[in-house]
Q: What sequence folds into this?
């Protein structure tokens, strides 16, 4: 019996360590397999805690990706505003005040615009 418990504990450790690399759907399939093989009692607490942790991490990663995309969109919008202001020959200092861009950033956008026209 002791050898069987050791074997089951080792299997539990291996599966627990691999959860970081398993997606949510496959995680549910593994959970079902554990239930049907009778190993559930060993995995019960370990598995559920690990699953919660992984799903939370994945959700946090999604939120972070969305936030990064929003920031990138905001930056691109600001760049578009700067380009439009430059087209209208708006004073660079005024553009800096309105957008928060540095003079170097504005001049770089101006340079890019000029090189794309030529």
A:
């Amino acid at each position: 019996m002791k050898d069987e418990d050791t074997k089951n504990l080792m299997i539990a450790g291996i599966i627990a360590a691999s959860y970081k690399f398993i997606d949510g759907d496959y995680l549910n399939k593994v959970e079902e397999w554990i239930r049907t093989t009778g190993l559930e009692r060993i995995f019960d607490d370990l598995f559920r805690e690990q699953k919660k942790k992984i799903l939370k991490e994945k959700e946090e990663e999604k939120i972070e990706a969305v936030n990064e995309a929003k920031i990138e969109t905001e930056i691109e919008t600001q760049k578009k505003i700067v380009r439009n202001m430059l087209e209208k020959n708006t004073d660079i200092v005024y553009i800096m005040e309105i957008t928060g861009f540095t003079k170097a950033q504005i001049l770089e956008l101006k340079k890019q615009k000029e090189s794309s026209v030529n």
User: Anything to note?
Assistant: Residues 87 and 110 are 9 Å apart (CA to CA).
